Automatic annotation (TrEMBL):
Monomer. InterPro entries: Elp3/MiaA/NifB-like_rSAM (IPR006638), Methylthiotransferase (IPR005839), Methylthiotransferase_CS (IPR020612), Methylthiotransferase_N (IPR013848), Methylthiotransferase_N_sf (IPR038135), MiaB_methiolase (IPR006463), NA-bd_OB-fold (IPR012340), rSAM (IPR007197). Catalyzes the methylthiolation of N6-(dimethylallyl)adenosine (i(6)A), leading to the formation of 2-methylthio-N6-(dimethylallyl)adenosine (ms(2)i(6)A) at position 37 in tRNAs that read codons beginning with uridine. The lineage of its organism: Bacteria, Pseudomonadati, Bacteroidota, Flavobacteriia, Flavobacteriales. Pfam families: Radical_SAM, TRAM, UPF0004. Its main location: cytoplasm. This is tRNA-2-methylthio-N(6)-dimethylallyladenosine synthase. [4Fe-4S] cluster 1 binds at residues 34, 70, 104. One of its GO terms (molecular function) is tRNA-2-methylthio-N(6)-dimethylallyladenosine(37) synthase activity. Its EC number is 2.8.4.3. SMART domains: Elp3 (SM00729). Residues 25-141 form the MTTase N-terminal domain. It catalyses: N(6)-dimethylallyladenosine(37) in tRNA + (sulfur carrier)-SH + AH2 + 2 S-adenosyl-L-methionine = 2-methylsulfanyl-N(6)-dimethylallyladenosine(37) in tRNA + (sulfur carrier)-H + 5'-deoxyadenosine + L-methionine + A + S-adenosyl-L-homocysteine + 2 H(+).
Amino acid sequence: MEEKIIEENKQGTSLVTDKKETNQKKLFIESYGCQMNFSDSEIVASILSEQGYNTTQNLEEADLVLVNTCSIRDKAEQTVRKRLQEYNAIKKINPTMKVGVLGCMAERLKEKFLDEEKIVDMVVGPDAYKDIPNLLKDVDEGRDAINVILSKEETYGDIQPVRLSSNGVSAFVSITRGCDNMCTFCVVPFTRGRERSREPESIVQEIQDLWDKGFKEVTLLGQNVDSYLWYGGGLKKDFDKASDMQKATAVDFAQLLDRCASQFPKMRFRFSTSNPQDMHIEVIEVMAKHHNICKYIHLPVQSGSTRILEAMNRQHTREEYIALVDKIYEIIPDISLSQDMIAGFPTETEADHQDTLSLMEHCKYDFGFMFAYSERPGTLAARKMEDDVPETVKKRRLNEIIDLQQKMALERTKRFVGQVVEVLVEKDSKRSDKHWSGRNSQNTVVVFPKENYKPGDFVNVKITDCTTATLIGEAVGYSERMN
């Protein structure tokens, strides 16, 4: 499992959906953690919409408050505990309000939540969202409501998610759930269960629905998208027990991606997260073949040292990772890559750290998500390894990694200056309401004067300047995709 991308500016946003006139009850739902949690909150809102709930952004008026939680890092858990104390103050004013904890933290702490956090009425793990209506009945009847059973089948493929806090332009579509990679630093296999893939037809139907509603970009989402494998249902690890017919008609990620890009030629596609051990050359060839698959791969590595990768139980060496990156650049020279990196994993030496820096210089990443190692309870590393790298050393190494990434990011962004790039307009620029903000195929943010363009337009932008993370330019007209 990869350290999922956690977008700090989205943490704790409460979700808004279209109101159903007949719904009388109010749901306040906020999400923390990775894109998968935000995607799951859309599924929950859809289930509860059928139970008479409209979403509200006013916590004080809510009948039901749900917080979708993350267990990746201790900071995420502490934020949620603080938030629960804030709910408690409001519950004193509105005693009928019910509070539920969803997601990975619910799965990790289970009954402890009901004991420790007296205000929590309901604890629901990532595979049990369809059971929420029954759990609400339990709460009404004065019983503790908890379902954290991990499923071998649940993919929520039959639920059309309600799009929450959406810009109406780009959306996430979940294609796998769970993870089989037992990375020693990661809690996800224990909180989200074993890996299973979603039926391809249901994925295509969801994309069709988004296209009909005017969306222009879809990110196919999974803990580990490259190992997508549909052979009629069931766990990925049981594929070897499948019948000859099931094996012959199985659909892998390259085939799914090819189908999506072919069937929706004017829709732009991204995917996340990729695992180096499962990234097949076929996927890269499919990316090269289709102009509507974005030239960007998030390819977490975690460390540049083979010894540390082995301690992390990553299923690849430094050399294998570098060979994969070289192959990607060979097939798609203008691609952007991003990394996840952990500084100060147990037993990491100065030589291991230098290996990480030299790997980064070789791979020339455009972006990075970099963290100091923090021990997560329940993981193999927490049970078997002493967290023996001093905090001061972790911080220094992390800063060196960040400094190098910043330097590379500026170099990588500068390559676009003077070029014309295609941008999908998403929203107002953060800095100025006279400028649009969108992203190019390589996932770099582009800002340009609004003129008469609008969100959802594909616009060709001539790049005149840049910062480390943003391209600045002027529109030169609609891109071919608009015809």
